[in-house]
Amino acid sequence: MRNRGIAAVLATFAVAIAAPAVARADAGGDKAKPTFEQVAKGAVRVDRAGVTGLLWAAAASCDGAGDDLDQRQCRAIKAARADEVAAQTYIVPGDAAAFVVGVYDAKKKSIPLTLSGCVACVEPLSLGGKAYYVVSNKGAPTFQGKLAHAAVLHETSRSFTDEQTALDWRAKVVPRLRTEFVVRLAAGGAVWNRDGKDGVAVEVLGFRVYDPCDGAIVCASPSSAKAAVDKAACGGAVVEGEPDDADDADDGAKADAPKAEKLPDEITSRQIQTAMQPVRDAAEACYQTYGVPGDGKLKVTVSGGAVIALEWTKGELADTPTGACIEKAAREVTFPKTRKSRQSFTYPISLR
């Protein structure tokens, strides 16, 4: 009776952990030419918890599942679940390391964009007390501390009319972009071990990066129609190309408006130190969380009191989980408004 109970629990666990946020992808696209929608047809959409369910089918160990009978039952359930997973395709989210936006190139008037096959590169998934990275099988991953670098799937660039427009897009739109992969478990052995790290490989059948505010596609393969719109993701950002509402105001209304306060010429050193205090505090917390030490210099560009661009100009924190965590905190900082349209400064950070 006890063995039957354990088998029932294992069966329920194997199915249930793959269930969160499940939905069938809609059919669509031109039948004459494959599209992202056609590749995604019939795929099951899963969130991060759902990816853990796929991981269980590929990598779970049954060695600790009770006595010999319990272990045999566990292996039978795992094998059946593995067959189901292998025959199915899935739509999974890319993580924070999947889509990387580079620095504006003034000569080319563009920003380089790179998409890597990262489903779980920054924060590996936990299963049975072990951490597993999930990456594309296009190439073997490399590691920098706890951060995995997966194979590059796509490289392109985005053109802009001028640098300010590019910086605005990078600061306001990029943080809300979403990455989706259509995947299936890699055939012939999805589980891998490299440099002392464990992981699971997936075959990427299609991908897209899009802006949920208006559904616009940033890059995709195969080509994709507009994605579903989520207006809640827009926030207060101004979409590139849209007119500023203030410019459309009636001249009479402008005349009646109170005079603008007199602004200082630029942000002072003391104001920078005060404003960046939360970043110093966050840096220590980021280091405690991710354990990646190093020295770095963060170039911060401010316009209208808001941070519009960040770049690691020197040091070891660029492209690390700790560095990404610090950048997230820095984007939330506000500064006093000044007459200067844009001001940059370099802020040193040392973590040991």
List strands and helices in order, with pairings.
Elements: H1 2-16, E1 23-24, H2 36-40, E2 44-45, H3 48-59, H4 68-86, E3 90-93, E4 99-101, E5 110-116, E6 118-127, E7 130-136, E8 142-144, E9 147-149, E10 152-159, H5 163-172, E11 178-185, E12 191-194, E13 197-210, E14 217-221, H6 251-256, H7 269-275, H8 277-290, E15 294-303, E16 306-315, H9 321-331, E17 343-351
Parallel strand pairs: 2-3, 7-13
Antiparallel strand pairs: 1-2, 3-11, 4-5, 5-10, 6-7, 8-9, 11-13, 12-13, 13-14, 15-16, 15-17
Task: Please describe what this structure looks like.
This protein is α+β, with helices and mostly antiparallel strands. It contains nine helices and 17 strands. It has helices at 2-16, 36-40, 48-59, 68-86, 163-172, 251-256, 269-275, 277-290, 321-331, and strands spanning 23-24, 44-45, 90-93, 99-101, 110-116, 118-127, 130-136, 142-144, 147-149, 152-159, 178-185, 191-194, 197-210, 217-221, 294-303, 306-315, 343-351. Strands 1, 2, 3, 6, 7, 11, 12, 13 and 14 form a nine-stranded mixed β-sheet that branches. Helix 1 runs parallel beside helix 4 (68-86) and helix 3 crosses helix 4 (68-86). It is globular, with a radius of gyration of 24 Å. 32% of the residues are buried. The model is unreliable at 1-30 and 236-258 (pLDDT under 50).
Helical content class: 25-40%
Distance between the termini: 55 Å
Q: Find the structural class using helix and strand composition.
A: alpha+beta
The beta-strand count equals 17
Rounded mean pLDDT score: 79
Radius of gyration: 24 Å
Number of helices: 9
